[in-house]
C-alpha cells in the first residue's frame, strides 16, 4: 500500500489534552502489540543503550590494541576474538553501535530537515517555486543514489562530514517527494487558508498548521529512511569508502575481517548481523505503526 | 497546423513520444550533472592526488589533462562528443608512454555486468510476480504471512550479509560452489555458470522481496474496485478474478516496481561484484573511486545512470501502453 494517505482530521490537535490522549492510545497499542513488535522495541532499546553507554560497557577501548595476535579466535578475554590488528571485536562492535547509528541518525535528520522544509514550501507556494524545485529534484533522483554518492565521494574525498552531507542531500530528495505530496493535500485545506487570512507568517503555517498534519507519516518514513541510510553508509564503509579507519563502524568491520570468511569463520558476519537486526526491527516497528494508524483511521 | 496534427495522433502514441522526449532530456541533464562534478573539485584536488611534493608544472599538466584549463562549455561538448564516438577519455592511471583508455578498461567489464544483471532479472522478475500474485490470492493466510515476514526481513538486511552467509555455507562449508566469481574469457560455459551462481542468487534475493510486495499490494489495491466485486458476484473463481480481472489493471504499478528494482539492481551489483570479485563495472567503479580516477568514475556513473533512466523509461512506456484508459480512448 502506498503510505501517502491523508491523516484523519480528528487525529489533529495541538491542544495538550488530545496530545496526551494520543500518547495514551500509543502506549495502549504498544501493550496490545504482537510479541514480535515488542521484541523489536526491545532490540532497539538495547542498541540505544549500547550506543549511549559504550564507554561503560565495552571491555576495551575503541582502537586499543589488546592482543599481539591478529584474528585471535573467540576466547575468555576477547569474547568474539580480535580483528586484523589485534583489537577486541566485541568492544568495536559496541562502539560501532554509537558510530554507525549516530551517523545514520544525523544523516537522516539533516535529510528530513532539508527535504521536509523544501517539500512543504513547494507544496505551499505551488506555481513556479514548486516547478523549479521539483524538476531539480527529479533530475537528482534520475541518478541512482549509491552511484551518485560514489561519484561525489571521489570528487570530495572520503571523510565523515562528506559522507553525512552527501548521503543527506541525496536522501532528502525522497523526503522532499513525500513531504510535498502530503503537504499538497493539507496546504489547500480551510484551516491553512484561514491561518493565511489571519496573517500568520510562513514559519507558523509550516510548523503549526501543515507539519502536525503530516507528521505521523513522516515519522514512519523517518524509520524507513534511517534503515536505508544505515544500509547505504554501511555499504559504503564496506566498500572502503565510508567511515575512515580507525573508527569502529559495522560496515568497515565486515570489510576488515572479511578474509576470515574463506576459513569458514563467522566472526565477520557479527557486525553485518548487527546492522541487519536493527534495520529489521525498525522495519517491523514501522510496519506495525502504519497498521495501527491505518486501523484507527478506519 | 502543428497543433491540429498533434491532435490526430492517438493519445497513446502522443504520450509515449512525450515520455521519450522527456527521457532524452533527463539523460542530457544527468550528463551535465555528472560532468559538472569535476568542476566542483576542491582547489587542492591536484595536490591531494599528486602528493604534497607536486611542482606547479605537474599540477598544471595534470589540470590540462583533466581539461580544467579550458572553458566549461567547450569541455562539456568535447566530452559528450567523445562519448558519442565511443571515446570516454583517458584514465588517470595512464602514464605518459602508455595511455589507458577508459573505453578499453570498461568494455569487457560492462558486458560481464550486463550478463549478471540480465540473468538475475530473468529469474527474479517472473518469480516475484508469481509470488506476489499467490500472496494476493491467499492474503491473510499462513503462506502470505510467512512470505511477507521473510520478504520484510530480506529487504532490510545489507546485501553483503546475504552474500557472506551464502558464501560461508554454500561455498566454504559445503564446497558446492567456488568462493570467487573471477570469470575470464575462454572459460568453459559450465565453469562460468558455476562461478556466476552465487552472485546471481544474492542479487535475486536482494530484489525479489520488494517486487513481490509491491505486486501483492498493487493487486490488492485493485481488488476493492467495483468491477472486481462484479466479477465475484457473477461467480468467477478467486484465481480467475485475480488473473483475468485484477492483474491486467495492475500491470502499470507492477511495471513501475519492476523497473525501479531493476534499476536498484544496478546499484546492488556494485556490492555483490566486490564481495565475489566478479570482474564487472561496479567493481571497476569502486576501485576508481578509491584511486580518485575521475574520468573512469564519470564514465561508470554515466553508464549506471543511463541504464537507470532507460529502465524507468521502459517502465513508464509499459505503464502507459497497458493503461486501458489510453488504449481505448473515448
Description:
The complex is a heterodimer of chains A (298) and B (330). Chain A is mainly alpha-helical. Chain A has a single domain (33-296), classed as Orthogonal Bundle (MetI-like fold), CATH 1.10.3720. Chain A is built from eleven helices and no strands. Chain A is globular and about 70 Å long. Chain B has 330 residues and is mostly helical. Helix content of chain B is 78%, strand content 0%. Chain B has 14 helices and no strands. Classes of the chains: A mainly alpha (298), B mainly alpha (330). At the A-B interface, α5, α6, α9 and α11 of A face α2, α7, α8, α9 and α11 of B.
Shape of chain B: globular
| CATH superfamily descriptor of chain A | MetI-like
- Total domains of chain A, how many? 1
CATH architecture descriptor name of the domain at 102-327 in chain B: Orthogonal Bundle
Keywords (chain A): Cell membrane, Membrane, Transmembrane, Transmembrane helix, Transport
Membrane topology (chain A): Multi-pass membrane protein
Protein name (chain A): ABC transporter permease
Transmembrane segments (chain A): 35-58, 101-125, 145-170, 222-243, 269-290
Task: Give a nutshell description of this structure.
The complex is a heterodimer of chains A (298) and B (330). With 298 residues, chain A is mainly α.
Task: Give structural attributes.
heterodimer, A: 298 residues, mainly alpha, MetI-like fold, 11 helices, 0% strand, disordered N terminus, B: 330 residues, 78% helix, transmembrane helix (chain A), MetI-like_sf (chain A), transport (chain A)
Amino acid at each position: 500500500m502506498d503510505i501517502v494517505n491523508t491523516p484523519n482530521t480528528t487525529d489533529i490537535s495541538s491542544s495538550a489534552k488530545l496530545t496526551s490522549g494520543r500518547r495514551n492510545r500509543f502506549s495502549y497499542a504498544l501493550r496490545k502489540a504482537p510479541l514480535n513488535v515488542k521484541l523489536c522495541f526491545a532490540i532497539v532499546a538495547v542498541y540505544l543503550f549500547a550506543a549511549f553507554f559504550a564507554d561503560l560497557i565495552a571491555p576495551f577501548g575503541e582502537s586499543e590494541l589488546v592482543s599481539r595476535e591478529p584474528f585471535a579466535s573467540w576466547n575468555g578475554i576477547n569474547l568474539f576474538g580480535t580483528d586484523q590488528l589485534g583489537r577486541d571485536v566485541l568492544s568495536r562492535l559496541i562502539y560501532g553501535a554509537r558510530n554507525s547509528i549516530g551517523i545514520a541518525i544525523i544523516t537522516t535528520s539533516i535529510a528530513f530537515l532539508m527535504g521536509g522544509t523544501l517539500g512543504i514550501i513547494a507544496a505551499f507556494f505551488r506555481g513556479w517555486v514548486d516547478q523549479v524545485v521539483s524538476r531539480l529534484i527529479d533530475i537528482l533522483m534520475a541518478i541512482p543514489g549509491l552511484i551518485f554518492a560514489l561519484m561525489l565521494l571521489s570528487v570530495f574525498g572520503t571523510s565523515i562530514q562528506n559522507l553525512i552531507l552527501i548521503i543527506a542531500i541525496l536522501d532528502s530528495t525522497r523526503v522532499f517527494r513525500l513531504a510535498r505530496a502530503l503537504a499538497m493535500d493539507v496546504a489547500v485545506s480551510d484551516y491553512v487558508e484561514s491561518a493565511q487570512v489571519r496573517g500568520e507568517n510562513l514559519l507558523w503555517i509550516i510548523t503549526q498548521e501543515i507539519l502536525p498534519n503530516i507528521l505521523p507519516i513522516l515519522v514512519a518514513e523517518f524509520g524507513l529512511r534511517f534503515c536505508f541510510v544505515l544500509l547505504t553508509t554501511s555499504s559504503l564503509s564496506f566498500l572502503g569508502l565510508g567511515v575512515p579507519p580507525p573508527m569502529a563502524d559495522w560496515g568497515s568491520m565486515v570489510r576488515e575481517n572479511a578474509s576470515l570468511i574463506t576459513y569458514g569463520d563467522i566472526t565477520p558476519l557479527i557486525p553485518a548481523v548487527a546492522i541487519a537486526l536493527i534495520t529489521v526491527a525498525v522495519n517491523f516497528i514501522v510496519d506495525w505503526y502504519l497498521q495501527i494508524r491505518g486501523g484507527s483511521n478506519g | 497546423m502543428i497543433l491540429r496534427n498533434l491532435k490526430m495522433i492517438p493519445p497513446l502514441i502522443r504520450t509515449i513520444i512525450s515520455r521519450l522526449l522527456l527521457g532524452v532530456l533527463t539523460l542530457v541533464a544527468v550528463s551535465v550533472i555528472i560532468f559538472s562534478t569535476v568542476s566542483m573539485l576542491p582547489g587542492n584536488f591536484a595536490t591531494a592526488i599528486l602528493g604534497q611534493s607536486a611542482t606547479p608544472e605537474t599540477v598544471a599538466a595534470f589540470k590540462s589533462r583533466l581539461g580544467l584549463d579550458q572553458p566549461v562549455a567547450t569541455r562539456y561538448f568535447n566530452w559528450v562528443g567523445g562519448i558519442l564516438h565511443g571515446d570516454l577519455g583517458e584514465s588517470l592511471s595512464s602514464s605518459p608512454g602508455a595511455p589507458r583508455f577508459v573505453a578499453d578498461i570498461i568494455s569487457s567489464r560492462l558486458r560481464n555486468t550486463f550478463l549478471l544483471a540480465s540473468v538475475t532479472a530473468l529469474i527474479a522478475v517472473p518469480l516475484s510476480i508469481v509470488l506476489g500474485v499467490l500472496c494476493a490470492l491467499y492474503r491473510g493466510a499462513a503462506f502470505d504471512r510467512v512470505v511477507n515476514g521473510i520478504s520484510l526481513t530480506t529487504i532490510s538486511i545489507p546485501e553483503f550479509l546475504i552474500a557472506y552467509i551464502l558464501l560461508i555455507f554454500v561455498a566454504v562449508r559445503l564446497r558446492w560452489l567456488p568462493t570467487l566469481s573471477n570469470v575470464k574469457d575462454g572459460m568453459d560455459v559450465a565453469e562460468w555458470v558455476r562461478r556466476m551462481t552465487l552472485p546471481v542468487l544474492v542479487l535475486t534475493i536482494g530484489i525479489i522481496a520488494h517486487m513481490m510486495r509491491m505486486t501483492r499490494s498493487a493487486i490488492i489495491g485493485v481488488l476493492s474496485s467495483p468491477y472486481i466485486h462484479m466479477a465475484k458476484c457473477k461467480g468467477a473463481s478467486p484465481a480467475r478474478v485475480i488473473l483475468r480481472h485484477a492483474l491486467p489493471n495492475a500491470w502499470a504499478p507492477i511495471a513501475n516496481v519492476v523497473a525501479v528494482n531493476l534499476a536498484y539492481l544496478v546499484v546492488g551489483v556494485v556490492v555483490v561484484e566486490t564481495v565475489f570479485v566478479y570482474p564487472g563495472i561496479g567493481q571497476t567503479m569502486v576501485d576508481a573511486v578509491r584511486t580518485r580516477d575521475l574520468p573512469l568514475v564519470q564514465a561508470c556513473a554515466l553508464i549506471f545512470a543511463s541504464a537507470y533512466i532507460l529502465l524507468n523509461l521502459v517502465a513508464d512506456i509499459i505503464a502507459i501502453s497497458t493503461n486501458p484508459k489510453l488504449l481505448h480512448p473515448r
